[in-house]
Design brief:
Layout: E1 42-44, E2 50-53, E3 62-66, E4 72-74, E5 76-85, E6 88-95, E7 100-102
Antiparallel strand pairs: 1-4, 2-3, 5-6, 6-7
Length: 120
């Protein structure tokens, strides 16, 4: 049986969507979810620990922290609050089943390597 890497969180039951990519993550989508797990999914990897927020803005409710170097399943990207960090600036946020993280913190291009067509 494979062990799932720990995800720092305040409410583990709400965060079933944060199962690392490649492992089953069958969490039902809520009406406020950015994406449905039935849609196309993509693997993203943060290069440092990054917070998942309820909405694509920095002052939105905190849901969890993704661990640097781990793979996670994302479903889409959207425009949100502009974030600047480590010399990078953009307004792209990566959508997970129940929340968003700024693309500034993910490996890859400005969309964390999600295709331009994967807009939420």
């Amino acid at each position: 049986m494979r062990r799932i890497p720990a995800v720092v969180t305040t409410c583990a039951a709400t965060l079933a969507f944060l199962v690392p990519a490649g492992l089953a993550a069958a969490a039902p989508a809520s009406p406020t979810s950015p994406a449905s797990p039935a849609e196309q999914s993509y693997t993203v990897v943060p290069y440092e620990n990054v917070k998942v927020r309820q909405l694509p803005k920095q002052d939105s409710a905190y849901l969890a922290t993704l661990t640097a170097g781990q793979s996670y399943t994302a479903y889409c990207w959207t425009h949100g609050q502009t974030i600047t960090d480590h010399g990078y600036t953009n307004d792209i946020w990566i959508g997970f089943a129940d929340g968003f993280s700024s693309a500034v913190y993910f490996k890859g291009d400005q969309y964390a390597n999600l295709p331009a067509s994967a807009q939420c």
